[in-house]
């Protein structure tokens, strides 16, 4: 599994974008060309928000960003539901919760597998950065991911339009990568953090990522 994780670290943000998009409930309403455009614009949206944050407040560690944004950080051991293993959550208006035991199991795995690219990187910070983006997204309705909608159906002049969940997640990961100056996509954690809890499911997600990549 170590080799699989290392191979994921070589994938581009756009390649992970295809994976995230493949799980969107309304993905079939989007053609190939539009999908590529949405992925690229969502990535750019996340990067731009991170760059603007650094420009406004300077380069800070993650705890300092929490302070300047007036966000409260709560820590719990875990919050594992029947279907999901939680690592971090955002609750309006300003509460971020991280689940320390779940994250620690991933950190222990990094040490066990001697994953050099992750040495010195706090997985906790990546989780927090992801949730910070959702806070910023909530307070800036002008962001691309908040304004871009897909027409699901229409009757005459009336059109029913909906946002894609995928574009929010694509942007949030691009934000975390830019904010923390990472050399890999934070989406690697989808597999790495899950593996200690459910090895079979982690392998399935890895395979899903690979299967979602555009065929040459």
Task: Tell me what you see in this structure.
The chain is mainly alpha-helical and 216 residues long. It has one domain (2-211). It is built from ten helices and five strands; from the N terminus they run H-H-H-H-E-E-E-H-H-H-E-E-H-H-H. A three-stranded mixed β-sheet has the order 1-3-2. A two-stranded antiparallel ribbon has the order 4-5. Helix 2 (13-21) crosses helix 10, helix 3 packs parallel to helix 8 (165-180) and helix 6 (123-139) packs across helix 8. The longest helix is centred in the N-terminal third of the chain and has 26 residues, at 32-57. The model has no long low-confidence stretch (mean pLDDT 92).
Short description:
The radius of gyration is 18 Å and the shape is globular. The chain is mainly alpha-helical. It has 10 helices and 5 strands; from the N terminus they run H-H-H-H-E-E-E-H-H-H-E-E-H-H-H.
């Amino acid at each position: 599994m170590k080799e699989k994780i290392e191979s994921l670290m070589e994938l581009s943000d756009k390649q992970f974008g295809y994976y995230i998009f493949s799980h969107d409930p309304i993905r079939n309403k989007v053609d190939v060309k539009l999908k590529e455009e949405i992925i690229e614009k969502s990535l750019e949206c996340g990067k731009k928000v991170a760059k603007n944050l650094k420009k406004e407040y300077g380069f800070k560690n993650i705890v300092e960003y929490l302070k300047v944004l007036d966000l409260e950080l709560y820590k719990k051991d875990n919050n594992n539901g029947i279907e999901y293993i939680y690592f971090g959550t955002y609750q309006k208006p300003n509460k971020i919760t991280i689940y320390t035991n779940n994250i620690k199991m991933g950190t222990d795995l990094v040490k066990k597998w001697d994953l050099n690219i992750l040495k010195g990187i706090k997985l906790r910070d990546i989780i927090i950065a992801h949730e910070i983006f959702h806070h910023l997204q909530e307070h800036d309705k002008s962001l691309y991911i908040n304004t871009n909608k897909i027409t699901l159906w229409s009757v005459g002049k009336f059109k029913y339009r909906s946002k894609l969940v995928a574009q929010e997640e694509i942007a949030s990961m691009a934000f975390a990568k830019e904010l923390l100056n990472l050399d890999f996509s934070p989406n690697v954690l989808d597999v790495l953090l899950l593996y200690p809890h459910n090895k079979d499911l982690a392998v399935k997600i890895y395979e899903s990522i690979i299967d979602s990549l555009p065929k040459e």
